[in-house]
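User: Could you check the structure of this?
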Amino acid sequence: MKYIVLICARGGSKGLPGKNIKPLNGVPLIGWSINTAKQIDRVSRIIVSTDSEDIAKVAIEYGAEVPFIRPKELAQDDSPEWLSWRHAIQYMENIQGESINALVVLPATSPLRSVEDVNACIDLFESEKVDSIITVSEASRNPYFNMTVNDHNGYATLVISSENKVKRRQDAPKVYDMTTVAYIVSSDFVSKFNGIFEGKIKSVVIPRERAIDIDDLTDFKVAEYLAQNFK
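Assistant: Sure, the predicted C-alpha cells are below.
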C-alpha cells in the first residue's frame, strides 16, 4: 500500500501568530512533524501543504517537499482542512501522476506524537476494512456525568441526560477526545466524500501527554514543558 504523509500548515494563525515555524526546544513546530514522518518506513513522500513562503522554506530545510502553494481560498480561518487534503491528492494524482492509496496526515500542531503512535494507526488501517483511522485520548470530562449546557431559561442541565442518572464518574460510559496526533485516510474516500465521519472509522488511543494540540501560547508552553521533561 502506498502512503504519503501530508502536513497542513497555513500561515494565518490567530491564536499564536507564526506558530507553525515557532521554535519548540530549538526545532520549528513543523519540523517536529517532518522529523517524525522521516522515521516511518511505509511512506514514500512527505508533502507540506501551506500558503506561506516562510513555512515552505522551513519545511524544505527539514526535508519535506512543497510541490505547490496552497490556494488562498483553502487557507482561510474557516476553510475546512478536508478540502486541503483533497486538493493535495488531486494535485499529486492529476499533475504529478502519483497513485496514492492513503494519506498519513500529521498536523504540525501535535509535535509530541511518537513514531510508534503513527505506526499503530497504519497497522490498524491495514488490518481493518475502514475508510479512516483517527486518534483519541481519554476525556477528562464526561457528557453523561459532569458536562453541562444551559437551556433557554439559563438553567444548567447535563449535556446527555439518561433515564438512569449517573451518580459516579466510574459509572459513566467512557468517552474520548479526538486528537490531532494522526489521521490515516483512504485517498478515494477523501475524493468522494465531504467529511471524515461520513465513513467507517476506528481509533487509536494516545496518552494525553503525547496528544497536546497547540492552538495558543498556553498550549505552546505546556508542550515545551512536556518536551523537556518526558521522552
